[in-house]
Amino acid sequence: MSTSADPTGPSRAPAKVKAATIYDVAQAAGVSHQTVSRFLTGFEGIRPATRERVVQALDDLGYRPNLTARSLKSGQSHRIGALTHEISQVGPARIVEGASIAAREAGYVLDIVSLDTRNPLAIEESLALITQHDLAGVLALAVTDEMTRAFEATSFRVPAYVASETDGAEDDPRGMLSRVGIPALVAHLAGLGHRRLVHIAGPTIWSAARNRIRAYDAAIDAQGLVSAGILHGDWSAASGYRAIAELTDLPDATAYVVANDQMALGAMLALKERGLRIPDDISIVGVDDIPEAAYFDPPLTTLRNDFEGQGRAAVSRLLARIERSEAVPVLVPPPLLVARRSSGPAPQR
Amino acid sequence: MSTSADPTGPSRAPAKVKAATIYDVAQAAGVSHQTVSRFLTGFEGIRPATRERVVQALDDLGYRPNLTARSLKSGQSHRIGALTHEISQVGPARIVEGASIAAREAGYVLDIVSLDTRNPLAIEESLALITQHDLAGVLALAVTDEMTRAFEATSFRVPAYVASETDGAEDDPRGMLSRVGIPALVAHLAGLGHRRLVHIAGPTIWSAARNRIRAYDAAIDAQGLVSAGILHGDWSAASGYRAIAELTDLPDATAYVVANDQMALGAMLALKERGLRIPDDISIVGVDDIPEAAYFDPPLTTLRNDFEGQGRAAVSRLLARIERSEAVPVLVPPPLLVARRSSGPAPQR
DNA sequence: CAACTGGATGTTATCGACAACATCCTAGTT
DNA sequence: AACTAGGATGTTGTCGATAACATCCAGTTG
What are the HTH lacI-type domain coordinates in residue numbering (chains A, B) (predicted)? Predict the structure, then answer.
């Protein structure tokens, strides 16, 4: 879908009435502003009669607290800075969406800054901008080397949290890789009789891409298979297409493990254009299970990643730090293998 | 790509040093805080010697203005609230990205709130949350009926701007429809000899979907063609698939005009599963030109929408209102027809 | 040389909320 | 009836910045 800006469209002139403050409310209720403030902060010891008048005045004036003033005094804004790359990609976008919803549920608003990977200068500027908005915390949602570097170079005076795919790495190295989910894909292919695989990886400045490469290598070893090589793309369908189309000879392999669904789509088209049938001649599997993957031709075997859950989890962990609560961290379910028609038994030679 | 939250990953403990204020700077420079403030706001009449000391102190202390305090006093935050739906969809996501970049270039930050279409209550809550953050302005980036209603029911005390696809509607009804771009698609199909078309529409609570339906109808009339019906989807590939798969008999048409690329993907799979060849037996065209569309099988003929440009345009218009500048509004180029292999000559009967 | 002018700088008030402290009132005690 | 404890409420200060007003001083003028 799309929408475009409407030059003459509906809009609202800024109403000149300025918002009611606690002083206005206090005057209307015939009490001091502090009584109003007390009511708002949930103080118990207010006489019912007084309380009633305050409630009434609050309602009459349509009072809305001014969060700017509140955060100036209390030093805590209810805003979280979220840094991400390429929000137009499905993965990051859905992580952001999950984070946004989780933040809102907790009474926070997300300041989203989508950084351009190709423009390191913009990253610096954005961080400078963000550090001024005294935020409650900062979240890095899509992790590239640039992002990591920028994060390390910046001194946030607030809790910062980097959401990365190296889930559980510190606790258990095996845990980390298994969480990436690639092993399940490799095992699936091994079960179908495939012995020689190829990996099409994402750009290695992304930690997610590096993790997937490591997971692929480890899974190949674990299953006693052979890797016929690693090709490189940039997450886009175009790069997946090129990775295959530009090869003079296809690698000697019967299955492709592609680091995301978009590249898998491009790779499938290139393979089909070379006259190969999927999955009869060659199997291909992706990662992410974007909503379109089930409607590729053939429908793509892939890993379902719970992006919204990842976003929620990142926020919940940041909030735990901000509010120093000991809340049980939200868990992200491990990726789920979704077998579709793009993977089939290895061809008999 | 994807990333997931890292429970033990890199993070930064909040440094306990609190930020330097203009008072700290003033003391360090041996001047009054007001002199510092004057320097910061670009006041000319400061003696070079004094200025030098201020600059030095500013630098030594690593001063960063506290925007919360600034906006409390000045009443103008540099934040813009952006309301959107389904940011995980490519269109909205890229509009948001464009808006976000444009906002940042102007020194603003976007507070993005992604509303759930299915939960009107959440819309109210989000608007309440947003109205408290005294924003410089509010932007509605994806327009559904719920959004419009909520906007009308809420009293923003700031400029609000609704970005919609009814581009130029008020100026020129023909302009509005042509901007939607559908006429170019219909003309393209007519040029290939198609006479009977079907439209697969998006959910009619979206103004974009309604506009596209109207544009389709108008274009059919203008070209003297016949519409064999309008099917309905929800923008997803799954709904495009179902729209075709659930029909007992296909409509008597040689071409499908689908309101977005994702539904077109699903529809193509369903058509192929019915044994139809694209484009030999049936032509299909989409809208949006998502990056994957060129790698569908066959590659999809579609309309290229400049989403980032739309986002930028929306921000620039809102900023013009906020700052009451007479800046020339950014123009969004009209959608461009991208002909690929999914559309071909109408079959001879 | 005193009065004046205007540029440079300092002092105080303000935004809206919350917090600390001060004060008032009521009910219970002797 | 005077006294007190403690709950209810009011007053003042604070957060960091900007605005309005006040003051200081050097150089000009008559």
Answer: 20-74
- Cβ-Cβ contacts under 8 Å, A139 against chain B: none
Residues of B in contact with A66 (CB under 8 A): 72, 132, 134
The reply to whether A157 has its C-beta less than 7 Å from any atom of strand C is no
For residue B207, what is the nearest residue in chain A, using CA coordinates? A3
For domain A22-65, is the CATH number 1.10.260.40?
Answer: yes
Question: Is B102 or B169 the better-scoring residue by pLDDT?
Answer: B102
CB distance A246 to A238 below 8 Å: no
Contact at CB, A133 and B67, closer than 8 angstroms: yes
* Token pair recorded at residue A345: 């038994």
Stated in angstroms, how far is B32 CA from C8 C1'?
A: 12
Per residue in A138-187, pLDDT tens? Answer: 888 877 777 777 777 776 667 777 776 554 444 433 333 346 788 999 99
Q: At what angle do helices A22-29 and A33-40 cross, to 10 degrees?
A: 110
pLDDT tens digits along A226-243: 999 999 999 999 999 999
Q: Residue B257: pLDDT band by 50, 70, 90 thresholds? A: very high
Min Cα separation A248/chain B (Å): 20
Give CA B144 to chain center in angstroms.
13
- Does domain A173-306 match CATH 3.30.70.3270? no
Dump pLDDT digits (tens) for B235-250. Answer: 999 999 999 999 999 9
Q: Which residues pair with A160 in a beta bridge?
A: A138, B12
Look at residue A77 and tell me whether its pLDDT is greater than 90: no
Rounded to the nearest angstrom, the minimum Cα separation between B287 and chain A is 8
Asked whether residue A196, judged by its CB, lies under 7 Å from any atom of the DNA or RNA strand C, the reply is: no
Report residue B220 as tokens. Answer: 């059919």
A11 confidence band (pLDDT: 50, 70, 90): very low
Strand (E) or helix (H) holding A338: strand A336-338
Q: May I ask the CATH architecture of the domain A76-162?
A: 3-Layer(aba) Sandwich (3.40)
Contacts of B77 in chain A (CB under 8 A): 68
Residue A221 has pLDDT above 90, yes or no: yes
Beta-carbon separation of B14 and A159 below 8 A? yes
Task: Identify any residues that bridge with A140 across adjacent strands, giving them in sequence order.
Answer: A83, A162
Interatomic distance B57 CA / D23 C1' (Å): 25
Asked whether the domain spanning B75-162 has the same topology as the one spanning B22-65, the reply is: no
To the question of domain B173-305 being in CATH 3.40.50.2300, the answer is yes
- In chain A, what are the domain boundaries? 22-65, 76-162, 173-306
pLDDT in the model for residue B240: 97
DSSP string across B42-81: T-S---HHHHHHHHHHHHHHT----HHHHHHHHS--SEEE
B41 touches strand C (CB under 7 A): no
What residues contact B17, with CB distance under 8 A and at least 6 apart?
Answer: A157
Q: Do you find a cis peptide bond into B65, omega within 30 degrees of 0?
A: no
Average pLDDT over residues B74-101: 82
Tokens describing residue B259: 């309101």
Q: What's the whole-number average pLDDT of chain B?
A: 82
- Which of A68, A93, A241 has its CB closest to that of B77? A68
Q: Would you state the pLDDT for residue B4?
A: 39
> Do the strands A226-232 and A196-201 form a parallel or antiparallel pair, or are they unpaired?
parallel
Residue in chain A closest to B107 (alpha carbons) equals A129
Classified by CATH at the fold level, domain B75-162 comes out as Rossmann fold (3.40.50)
